[in-house]
Amino acid sequence: MELTREHVLEMGMTGKLMRARAIEEQLNEIEEDLRVRQSRRLKQAPESLGRKLNEQFMMAQLAKRRSLIREFEYSIASMVYQAVKPNQNGVTRDEIERARTYPIENILDVKKGIARCISGSHEDKNPSMDVRNNFCYCYSCGWSGDSIDVAMKMSGLSFSDAVKKLQ
Questions:
Q1: Whether residues 38 and 60 fall in one domain
Q2: Are 67 and 99 members of one domain?
Q3: What is the pTM of this model?
Q4: Does pLDDT of 6 surpass 80?
Q5: What is the pLDDT of residues 10-30, one digit of tens each?
Q6: Is residue 98 domain-shared with residue 158, that is, in the same domain?
Q7: Average pLDDT of span 139-158
Q8: Cα angle 103-106-112, degrees, rounded to a multiple of 5
Q9: What is the tens place of the pLDDT at every residue in 20-62?
């Protein structure tokens, strides 16, 4: 289980969701298998070898189920904690993700996916900054950024202030 925790930490939020979903599927398979075996057990004679083997297997499946439930609970708890735990800038990952999805078009004057560069490193008489998928890139100077970067550059805000402004 410790190795699983290390992998979950390395994978980030998407990996954690994928792992939680895989655990949920394993739990569903075990539950179904236990239901089938329980119905078989009821049909077998009380002292038969098949019934004893079936019961041993069911006990092993129940132990595996308990272990998976603990792992699932850990995975969910770590995702919740990560989403609500403020980072060193005083904002949560959830707030950062919401800020990144804030439309750049609401901050910049964008026409047909093109805007004037805001980097200040060159004069931009003709718009040279491409804006797509809530991300911008200037073909003249190479400046790029998302909604947070644009808010920081345009308003002179710190990272955490920009994130809070874009909520």
A1: yes
A2: no
A3: 0.51
A4: no
A5: 556 667 777 788 888 888 888
A6: yes
A7: 91
A8: 85
A9: 888 888 888 888 888 888 887 777 777 777 777 777 888 888 8
For the record, the structure tokens of 86 come out as 């403020």
Task: Specify whether 9 is located in the same domain as 79.
Answer: yes
Token representation of residue 16: 């954690």
Confidence (pLDDT) at 4 = 56
Domain containing residue 80: 2-84
Is residue 151 pLDDT above 90, yes or no?
yes
Q: Based on the fold, state whether residues 28 and 101 are members of the same structural domain.
A: no
Please state the three-class secondary structure of the chain as a single string: CHHHHHHHHHHHHHHHHHHHHHHHHHHHHHHHHHHHHHHHHHHCCCCCHHHHHHHHHHHHHHHHHHHHHHHHHHHHHHHHHHHHCCCCCCCCHHHHHHHHCCCHHHCCCCECCEECCCCCCCCCCCCCEEEECCEEEECCCCCEEEHHHHHHHHHCCCHHHHHHHCC
Q: How far apart are CA 92 and CA 65, in angstroms?
A: 33
Residue 59 tokens, joined: 């006990």
